[in-house]
Amino acid sequence: MIRTDKLTKRFRSLTAVDAVDLDVQRGDIYGFLGANGSGKTTTVRMLLGLVLASSGSIEMLGAPMPKSGHEVLPRVGALVEGPAAYGHLSGRANLMLLDASGAPGPRRTRPDRVAEALALVGLDAVGKRPVKAYSLGMRQRLGLAGALLRQPELLVLDEPTNGLDPQGIREIRNLLLALNERGTTIFLSSHLLAEVEQLCTRVGVIDRGRLVVQDSLKSLQAPTGRTVVHTPDVASAVGILNGRVVHADGERLVVQSSDPASLNALLVEAGVRINELAPERRSLEQVVLELTGSGSDRVSSR
Amino acid sequence: MIGIELQKLFRRPRTWMTIVLLDALPTVVAVLLATTHVGPRPGQGPAFLSAVLANGSLFAVAALAIVLPLFLPVAVAVVAGDSVAGEAQSGTLRYLLIRPVGRTRLLVAKLASVFVFVVVSVVIVAGTGFLVGRALLGNQPLSSAVVSVSGTALTPMQIVWRTLLAIGYVAFSMLGVAAMALFLSTLTDSPMSATLGALAFLIGSSLLLTLDAAKALQPYLPTRYWLSFVDLFRDPMLLRNVERGVALQAVYVAVLLGCAWANFMTKDVKS
Predict the structure, then answer these.
(1) A253 has which bridge partners?
(2) What is the pLDDT of residue A298?
(3) Neighbours of A21 (CB within 10 A)
(4) Among A104, A205, B63, B183, which residue's Cβ finds the most Cβ atoms within 10 Å?
């Protein structure tokens, strides 16, 4: 659905995006992770033809961008760096205007389309209030409604849950999962690791303009070959395991073993009581922190 | 797209506020003239003001002459300066471009809506001027002859035609400012800077017009022929300066729109 080849953007001497090769496949929920200022938004803008690449190429829905934008973009819904609307008009009026501009939908069904999109994001009862009286979360929902107007094949969402409360975040997450189930591919950029971890099937991490990893979430979170054991009988456990304990921290032991079942059997047989035993998995946070430096909004001499 | 831009423009309270303010100044002038009966001496002050005491119908043209040097260009610069930069500032520009609205189409639609704004405001100013003039100042029957600037009499039909011509000319004269503001509007994400930039351009031009040392430049200054619509009320009509004014505006509009287009097509939209 999205494929870039050595996509690069230079702003004078600053290389904001450096030879990025994205590969987003049909049906993915792709999490595009990166710290603030790492080049996420610039990449998203290049995909949509807002910022022109310095070099490299983009293919979206099988056609080159930005050259085929007039064919590709009507099949894409997007939320770029926060929602935007005309503050003096109501949410509904804003969507009516948006639907009428650029590759417009049929005029006859416009009110239905707008009503449907508003209902999807939970704004159907908002009435005639102008957008300038909306809360941040409502604006975010309105932005999403705009992206969903045309039932796009591909959704490109930049920080979609920004400004939403926990309930709202869960609601939007469920909405995205439902859309994905119906065949919408979702490209979601975020700096919220938890959000990506809960939602995405594939992950790309960008750090200072470079794509440092791109893989399925499953293989990024593959077991580490160690097992975490919680036991009140630390001393006897350490004795039995005989040098395989990599790390001990109170009642928590990290044991070199990729087979939790036999480890459990061994300990129980020896009369060691066990509270909890599980294979160690790396969290997405660990993966990302290992691969990236500090965020670029940190300005220090080190 | 043009229809959508017009909707945006005319559903905005600010647009109507601007037009109301534009109308306020000539109305104040009319009230003052009607209560004091002190007109400027012939040849001084805004064009036609000395004539309107005798015939209120001419106040339509006088109203145009009152707003033309400053009020009208300010209003046009505000609207045109806001056209692209305002969308950039509010963030709606990126959502328009990814619908996708082609950049050229957007620019053309913006220009067209600014032009419609100019025409609507000029017509409203002239219309208000006519009504206010008839109501407050001398309201001879419409059929009576009016004295032209040259001193001979013009028939009411002639006056109507020439007033319409003057409205057209004034509107066209504003296109240079509109094009300048539109160009600056594609350069910056701040509507205020675009508007002030376009006004600086006009003030610079008006200043150089008063400077004898700038004589060689004067035929090319954008505001040089603005007030030449007065020539339309001479008998016979003196078209030389009006024609030059139209040609000069056309050149400014073409060059500035070319710049606006070239800049906007290759611009990284980062707002």
Answers:
(1) A229, A248
(2) 60
(3) 13
(4) B63
E strands, chain A, in order? 2-11, 14-20, 23-24, 29-34, 55-60, 63-65, 76-79, 154-158, 185-190, 202-207, 210-216, 223-230, 245-249, 252-256, 276-281
The DSSP bridge pattern shows strands A245-249 and A63-65 to be unpaired
B-chain CB neighbours of A158 within 8 Å are none
- Burial class from Cβ neighbours inside 10 Å (0-12, 13-18, 19+) for residue A301 reads exposed
- Joined together, the tokens standing for residue A291 give 């691969």
| B66-110 pLDDT tens trace | 898 889 999 999 999 999 999 999 999 999 999 999 999 999 999
- Contact: A82, B102; criterion CB under 8 Å: no
Q: Say whether A80 and B98 touch across the interface (CB within 8 A).
A: yes
Q: Are B232 and B162 in contact (CB under 8 A)?
A: yes
- Burial of A152 (C-beta count, 10 Å sphere; 0-12/13-18/19+): buried
- Residue pLDDT, tens place only, A272-288: 898 998 888 888 888 88
Q: How far apart are CA A20 and CA A33, in angstroms?
A: 13
Q: Please report the ipTM that was assigned to this predicted complex.
A: 0.85
Q: Which helix (H) or strand (E) holds B129?
A: helix B103-136
